[in-house]
Amino acid sequence: MHVFYTYLFLTDFQQDAFLAILRFVLILLVIFHVLRHVRDTRSSIGWIGFTLIMPITGFILYMMFGVNRVVHRAQKLVNNRPWHNKLLDNMTRYYIKGHFYPLAKVVEGFTGRPLLIGNKVEPLFNGDEAYPVMLEAINSAKVCVFLSTYILKSDETGKAFADALIAAQQRGATVRVLVDGIGSGYFYCPISKYLKKNGIKMDRFMHSFLPWKMPFINLRTHKKILIVDGKVGFLGGLNIANENVLALHPKHPVSDTHFKITGTIVHELTEAFLQDWFFITAEDLNKKSFYPETETAGNMICRIITAGPDSDIEKIKYTMMQAISLARKSIRIMTPYFLPDDRFLSLLSLAAIRGVDVEIVIPEQSNQRLVDWARNINNLMPLQHGCKIWLVKAPFNHSKLMVIDRIWSFVGSSNVDMRSLRLNFEINMEIYHKEFAENLDDFIGSHRYKLLTLEELENRSIIAKFRDATTRLLLPYL
């Protein structure tokens, strides 16, 4: 403020000189920081170029949106609390052989998590199947209930979950709830008010009205996980709202796929939630009672993989890309939004060129018109190189599934778009199990409704092509 008043009393020449020096200093600061901390070359050039043209505006925008404070915050908190695998050392690790060995080796290297055997994974379709099973688990809780979700609405379904959580805490269970600061309501989150009023400890992920915390608005937790007593877990793409219960005939129905998991892998899922809770609240709940001895529930080999713009950056994306590069026979991807970057598209195209049967299954019409327009441009490359893109008829399908060679499966919260693969906090699980993969592969195939053709995209009107190309500029934020 003192500098501002001093500036007002300077002569015109002195003011011009002051602004010139200020612009020069700000440009140097941005260039220095970008060269040290921004990895992406295109982003680096963009920020430097914009600041050279508009030094003051460029500096302000870079400080708000270009500096990844999440990494710094995550590193600081994690360094204060050594988490990884401290309670997983005695678990039954498994080592993959065969042509998926490089994938298993690479993923363990960058996640630090082992593959665990002794698990059972059961698919649950839509809220019609999933919600009753999830509520039954919560109603049986004795030790702890941990819930993290992108959307928790204050409707009939949301209230049923809230009441179950409240009852679990009244029985003596430790209950923690984490919802996204945007997905569950930025300005008003009624379910948060209801839970807190009834004594539930819950938080809204990266939520703040403070101007200096505005950069965090673009960073969302997209995870959908539930853990009960450290023995049963749920993971997938399912939010908690009436729109996911097709029997209720909602105005905008959403079909989805969720998974119930039991066995040793629940420990990794518990650890993932408690890391997020510590990251947001600094409350340390890494207690042995939350990691009970688990009985072998089956013979499925699994691993949890988390990703986000912190120390886990792009790990889900790297896993998918490595799996694609190892595919020999088939690649099946089902996703509500298909907007990956060119590297991802190139790997799919190369797989198709070498003879792999590549199929991408996406909604004929999603719940976001801008995404549908932007994906038209992205779909050109894979179609040109022999990939098949199938459209799914209504209702809008929100499932996130991937199967390679009918052996390896990848399920969870992550879409195949740049937001999920780089900006969002996501959680997926890889599964090595032939029978499960075959069933999931067939499930994806059962949704093939209409084959999208290259001719159809190329015959769009000039106006539609211009609209789609313009929309694609927003690709990192859609």
UniProtKB/TrEMBL annotation:
It comes from the Bacteria. Keywords: Cell membrane, Lipid biosynthesis, Lipid metabolism, Membrane, Phospholipid biosynthesis, Phospholipid metabolism, Repeat, Secreted, Transferase, Transmembrane, Transmembrane helix. The chain crosses the membrane at residues 17-35, 47-65. It is found in: Cell membrane; Secreted. It is an enzyme of class 2 (transferase). This is Cardiolipin synthase. GO terms for molecular function: cardiolipin synthase activity. GO terms for cellular component: extracellular region; plasma membrane. Pfam families: PLDc_2, PLDc_N. InterPro entries: Cardiolipin_synthase (IPR022924), CLS_N (IPR027379), PLD-like_dom (IPR025202), PLipase_D/transphosphatidylase (IPR001736). Its EC number is 2.7.8.-. It comes from Commensalibacter intestini. GO terms for biological process: cardiolipin biosynthetic process. Could be a virulence factor. Its main location: membrane. Residues 217-244, 393-420 form the PLD phosphodiesterase domain. It is a multi-pass membrane protein. CDD domains: PLDc_CLS_unchar2_1.
